[in-house]
CAP-Gly domain-containing protein
Amino acid sequence: MEDFTIHLTSDLTSSERRLSPDWTLKYFKHRVEYITGIPPESQKIWIYETNDSNEREQIDSLLNEETTLLEDLHISPFTRIHIESTSNDPDMIQLQKELLNPEDQDEEGLFKLEEKRYDEMAHTVKKWKLEKKLGRYDPAFTGKIQELLEENEVKAKTIRVGDRCKLHNSSFERLGTVRYVGKIPEINNENSWVGVELDEPYGKNDGSIKGVKYFTCKLNYGSFVKPIVVETGDFPQEKLDFNSDEEEDEL
């Protein structure tokens, strides 16, 4: 069977990737780590039939990763594969929170964990993490952050103002229109951001952040997110038909 394209998502990333059905599960998880930043031992893998499907199936964690091939998992072209992190590492959790909620950050910006928070920790805990090189003190942690930053900048170059988009940074996907792409000094001076006018009031602002207006929309229809959680494409605005005579299950 030839290589094919799938949708690979995580709480931090969303992209199309090509894979080979001949890859072992172990090799696939190793490749996924460099895309999502989630180490193989912390990966919980969910398979969706399509990118828009809500039905999913978890890959059995007891499978032999050395011998199980991707073709054995019945993954087909344009299947969505979601990588969930099972890590309880507080630094990685904080990293995700900072990525998914940029508007709650201060001027220190994304990927910079507050030093004061660590200084207030019990001295024995901080010393232990330093000695064991855990969390932010692990050299690999810095490398993963840099990889995310680089992927973010590459993705930003593919997004244009006016693009319809879908956001993958919450428990449910949100649709909207791109209204701004670029730097936002009010968050930080290093990373690119995407300002989105959402179709529904699931945002946090009106297109401004910390008093600076980047685009105009209704209150709670605006959101600023990292490019790596933005998927652009043909996503028509959904309209509720209250006059339909058809009976449907309540959502």
Remarks:
- The longest helix spans residues 139-156.
